[in-house]
Every structure is written in structure tokens, then in C-alpha cells.
Amino acid sequence: MTSIKKTSVNYENKLQLGSECAQVYAALMLGGQWTLAICCHLAGGKLRFGELRKKIPAITERMLTLQLRKMETNKLIVRKVYAEVPPRVEYELSESGQKLIPILIQLDNWGRQHQEYLQQHA
Amino acid sequence: MTSIKKTSVNYENKLQLGSECAQVYAALMLGGQWTLAICCHLAGGKLRFGELRKKIPAITERMLTLQLRKMETNKLIVRKVYAEVPPRVEYELSESGQKLIPILIQLDNWGRQHQEYLQQHA
DNA sequence: TATGGTACTATCAAAAATGTAAGTATTATG
DNA sequence: CATAATACTTACATTTTTGATAGTACCATA
Predict the structure, then answer these.
(1) What confidence tens digit (pLDDT) does each residue in B12-54 have?
(2) Which domain holds residue B103?
(3) Are residues A23 and A38 both part of a single domain?
(4) Which one, of A100, A68, A67, lies nearest residue A81 by Cα?
């Protein structure tokens, strides 16, 4: 199954959660397993499908496609297709996606701090 | 199923993702569907189990328990049990969890901005 | 005519997350 | 003795996400 079922309780919950507070809405936008990883790599500039695949070796083509589609739908990224053969497709952060970068940097710092915190209190 | 299977590819992927960059690690910490919502409510101070349940009406007792347990394991929150009857349990953000608050505020702002961005580019 | 390169898509299966409903332990109070 | 209040736990079902594998379309080039 690739898309969420619009009659499920889970779907209702996600809607409600997203409208409750905006950070939860944000989390829904950023929620895929690979979404943040993709954002990180795109923070350095536009990349082609194949380049992303090389930068994230563990991801399968299917998951990369799915995540990119979702991110495109959510307008985190912009997809540019060039009419060439072999095909060329480039992905880059949208205007709104770029505004995430400083937050990602802070999350990065927090993550490091928290890892230390965990070790100290183990 | 309640806990991740330590022999699965998915588990390997999460480990690898988490060690790749710290913001992805952070996202794993914050990843549950209700985790951020709980953090938001605890940002205002400690709360009892039943209080949290009232503040997040859609959550079930089971999910609230699971999320709180995970957050406790990850040391985002601290759980205090009082030896009383009927029982009393209080949850509050850990020292490290409190450091998330400014980031949550920024995420909140970004979320609002992004909602507008989506509407403008619909 | 066969091959290669790119960015996918389709199908099926497995795993993970979440939801539903019912039950538990404790003791004060009526 | 029955009930109420609180914070859970258990068993099971459903939904959602992710993985594995194979195949497609396009056209330049050998």
C-alpha cells in the first residue's frame, strides 16, 4: 500500500494532529524515513536522482521515488525534468524547503548533545 | 507488534541513518506519531498520565503508554511514580528534552509559513 | 540489430505502527 | 461487600510503511 486510506481512524488522527499545533504538522511533512536525509543532501544544492541514490546507498529506487514524490507533493522540493535521452531529472529544495536548513542545523546540534546526554545517564 | 525486529533490514537502515547525520538521529528520537504532541504539552510543565490523555483526546491509552515508554527510554522525558493509591504518575521533559523547546518553536513557525506557502502555490 | 544509460513503475511480500476492546492491581470509601 | 479512581497491560485486528525483484521507455551509439 502506498497511500493512506482516507476512511481510517489513523488518517483522521493525522489530520487532527496536524491542525492542533504547527510543529506536529511540520513533523508530518518531514516524517518519511528518508525525508530528512534527502533534505540534508539537497541542502548542498540540486542533485539528480542517481546522485541521491549514490549518496544514500541503503535506499532502494522504489523508496527514493516514493519519498521524492511525497516531498514534491508537499512542496519541500522542486523537480525539474529535462527533455533529454537518457533522461535527466534534478531535485532541489523549494523556497520553503530552504528555510528548513537552519532548523536542521539546530536539530543536528541537539542530536549530538542528546547522544552525549544518553551516554552520561546510561 | 510493538518493538522493532533487530534482524530486519529496516532496523539496519534506521541504525545507519541515525549514525549518518545527527538530525536524522534526532528525527528517530522524535519519530512517533504522538511524540511531538506530547513534547508540546509537557513544554508547559509536568503532567499526569490522565492529564495528557485529556489534552490529546484522540490518543488511546495504549498508544499514550507506548509513546511515553519510548520517550522515557530515549530519555526525552522523566517518569515519576508516587506510591499512592489510586496511583499517581507524573511526566516531565528531561534536561535534554527541554533543550528541544526552542527548536519546537521554530518548527512551529516554519509549519505556519509552510502552510501559507502551500496555499500560495496551490 | 543489439547495448547502454537514466529514471523510473509494477507486483508481491514482509515488517512496523496503530487501533479496538477488554482486563488488572491497589485501597479508600459507602 | 461493592464501587470508584488511576495508570496501566494483554490479545488481537487493521492499516501503513518498507523491502525485494523484475520490468519499462527512450534514443544515441557501436
Answers:
(1) 888 877 677 888 899 999 988 899 999 999 999 999 999 999 9
(2) 33-120
(3) no
(4) A68
CB proximity A32–strand D (7 Å threshold): yes
**Could you give the CA distance from residue A24 to residue A121 in angstroms, rounded to a whole number?**
28
pLDDT in tens, B90-119: 999 999 999 999 999 999 999 999 999 999
Q: Tell whether B38 and B20 lie within a shared domain.
A: no
Domain identity same for B79 and B94: yes
Q: CB-based contacts with strand C under 7 Å?
A: A 1, 9-10, 13, 48-50, 61-62, 65, 68-69, 79, 81, 85-89; B 1-5, 8, 10-11, 31-33, 58-63, 66-67, 85-87
Q: Is A88 on the interface with B (CB under 8 A)?
A: no
The total number of structural domains in chain A stands at: 2
The answer to whether residues A56 and A110 belong to one domain is yes
What Rg, from alpha-carbon coordinates, does chain B have?
Answer: 17
Task: Look at residue B2 in the predicted model and tell me its pLDDT.
Answer: 63
